[in-house]
Amino acid sequence: MRWVTIVILKKRWDEKFVPIFLKALEDKDPEVVRVAIMAMSRATIPAASEPIRKLLYSPSELIVLSAIRSLVELASTDVLDEFRELFEKTDNHKVRATIASAFGDLEGDGVLDFLKECLYAPDARVRANAVMALKKKYDKLGSLPADIIDRIIELKSDQDTRVQADCVQALWSMGMADNLADIEKLLVSSNEMSRSSGAYLCGKLKLYQLKKQLENLTADSSWTVRKMSAIALLAFGDSGRAVLKQLMEYGTSDQQIVSAFAVGLTDDPSAIEKLIEQSRSGSEMAEMATSLLLRLAKPVT
């Protein structure tokens, strides 16, 4: 009940609710505290960040992550030292990775040096988030130190597929569009997560020259790869939808289902009909089609 009340007040935001949210920051339920933190992110009073700072060392991971994100939204640049200290003290990789992301949105002395150090972190999530944080810095500054660029290039060979993909994406946005071969390697990798990452990049970067490879990956042995490839095709607009509609009619059962799911995300009724048809087919993919139908179902309002 407390959670519901706080959620309602957050949606009906008014500065007069601040005392209620401040009190909710002390609640025993992490979910209540999380919503209160999110609400306080909208406060305009100068002291709004102070009670949130105190939650950075909460025993609840949920609360700590919410506090970090909230302080970023409040543009509390004076929290850089606190974030650095928390990064050093915690052994929670998710917290460390979130701090790395936060530095991409904050200004101040030593930000680039900190993110450079994160590129060498033992945890892949920290490395990946640091790469994307540095991409943001490049977008804003127009350049980055050469040693940082060199390290990102090195990380294209990282053992973690997400780090690889994020490096390719970051370098591409920096004008280094000679990474097509790297993406093609991901698409044919024996590792399904690498293939999925490659498919994601094809859609994210709208690589029309690799659209046929994406189409072929909708028949991949991995559901994760098939789904990512189909969704990535949506990024190509009408031409991508045309490919998916063709697969819905003439592809294999796997392709029909995953294509219908992707097209269904655009509220196309023909995709829903195809999933219904497959769900009643009695084939081994019928259960998958039914599951996807449930995912696409929207509550009646």
Describe this structure in words.
The mean pLDDT is 83. The chain is mainly alpha-helical. It has helices spanning 2-11, 18-24, 30-40, 49-53, 61-73, 80-89, 93-103, 111-118, 124-141, 146-154, 161-173, 180-187, 192-204, 211-217, 223-233, 238-250, 253-264, 269-279, 286-296. Helix 17 (253-264) runs parallel beside helix 19. It has a domain at 1-75: Leucine-rich Repeat Variant. It contains 19 helices and no strands.
List keywords for this structure.
Leucine-rich Repeat Variant, single chain, 301 residues, mainly alpha
- How far is it from the N-terminal to the C-terminal residue, by CA? 22 Å
CATH C-level class of the domain at 1-75: Mainly Alpha
Q: What do the pLDDT scores average to? A: 83
CATH-defined fold name of the domain at 1-75: Leucine-rich Repeat Variant
Q: In percent terms, what proportion of residues is strand? A: under 5%
| Total beta strand runs | 0
Q: What is the second-level CATH architecture of the domain at 1-75?
A: Alpha Horseshoe
- What is the ordering of alpha helices and beta strands? HHHHHHHHHHHHHHHHHHH
State the fourth-level CATH superfamily of the domain at 1-75: Leucine-rich Repeat Variant
* Helicity level: 55-70%
Main sheet attributes: strand count, strand direction, barrel closure? none
The quaternary state of the protein chains shown equals single chain
In the predicted model, the low-confidence regions spanning at least 5 consecutive residues are none
Q: Which shape, going by the Cα principal axes?
A: globular
- Give the helix tally: 19
What structural class results from the helix and strand content? mainly alpha
Q: Round the Cα radius of gyration to an integer and report it.
A: 23 Å
